[in-house]
Amino acid sequence: MGDLRMTKLSLLNRRQALAGFGAAGFMASSAHAAAPVHAEDFGVIPAFPDDQTRAMQAALDAAAAQGAALILPSGSIFVRDLQLPGQLTIEGVPGATQLASWNGGRIAQAGNISNLVLRNIVFDARNATALEGDALLEITGALAVTIERCSFTNSPATGLRIAESGVTVSDCDFARHGDAAIHATDNHNLLVTGNRISDCGNAGIRVWRSEPGADGSIVTGNRIAKIDWRGGGNGQNGNGINVFRADEVILSDNHIADCAFSAIRLNTTNNIQVSGNLCLRSGEVAIFSEFDFSGSVIANNIVDTAAAGISMTNLDSGGQIAVCTGNIVRNITPLSVVNPDTRPYGIAAEAEAAITGNTVQNVPGIAIAAGNGPFLRNVLIASNVIQASNIGIAVSVADGAGAVHIANNIISDVRDHAVVGMAWSDIVEPDLVTNAGRFANVTVDSVTVGRSPRS
């Protein structure tokens, strides 16, 4: 026992000594930190209308070699395809330092590096008609990269492209990009927070993977607006946030407005949380969990003005397991300009789904829909408040449709029917509350149907 105690004491003393040495080393390192390197000392001349790539690259390499920060001057610096080293902080003058594309070249890329910080830099393509490379800045195979208080503007392609990397993008501005503001593929520990994105041709933020798998990206607190669909299609473009094949992603507290298709679109995802987002004026389905998804939690969002509200469908492609709770969905439009096949509805689900505690108002169609033809399995519609729709709740009673339970909903001011049974697009039972016993897949309990008092 005594020998064991001595061993523990020896280990403890050794750890304390090592900690002391580490602290002393840190103090010595801090005391002798390299002085910042100034890009102007390497011949970088702000506002000089010529290619300064060689001078900028020399400044970058020297700062990295010295372990010093690189300070950029105020003004425009024309460059193309800078190679950003790791172990480096590059900092400009807030709102005044601009790295501008020379003759339509990619401004910079960072590959297989770590510990890079970019701060207070404007990346500007200067409205080039074409861009060599897919983005103004490309980061590949990098770790511990931080991009903060930067701007990305006027690219005919994408502002920032990130692949197979761990990156934090915070408090940045993205505007006027021909494709997307941020395109992220096969990443890990990606954090996109507090950014402002507007006027993009096809997408705001894309979180994609080349094959389905764990991703873990967090996209939170961003403002996204005016997203077009110049690339066409029926949903792959025109989205504020698009998650494709990426699992374990959190999308929270984003303000998303005026997207040609969806504010948030999930395709082939697993274990996704979509919460606290404000989605305004979506041209198609505002929040869409589609195709081979599994495990979507869509909670406490507000959808106001959209061609359709929230969809958790595509059981025919394997889409299943969803919770839709605490959302406000209102002011659904009669049609979609970008997708005429879209029918107006508030919330729709097909398989292993709980639709509970939502408020749906002003829908010129179906407020809450369960199933389509035989594509219905185990859906709960409970404790929702529905007001001013053509149809309150619609349930598939077609041959092969699975179980649905309707309970404790309040429905008022319906223009046509409160609860109906449907076979595909046809109403085959206009009063499903009274006649639910006709259909083996439906149970109905305590639906309150009324009319709001008018002044």
UniProtKB/TrEMBL annotation:
SUPFAM superfamilies: Pectin lyase-like (SSF51126). Residues 1-33 form the signal peptide. Residues 136-227 form the Right handed beta helix domain. It comes from the Bacteria. InterPro entries: Beta_helix (IPR039448), CHP03808 (IPR022388), PbH1 (IPR006626), Pectin_lyas_fold (IPR012334), Pectin_lyase_fold/virulence (IPR011050), TAT_signal (IPR006311). Pfam families: Beta_helix. Gene3D superfamilies: Single-stranded right-handed beta-helix, Pectin lyase-like (2.160.20.10). Keywords: Signal. SMART domains: PbH1. This is Tat protein. It comes from Devosia yakushimensis.
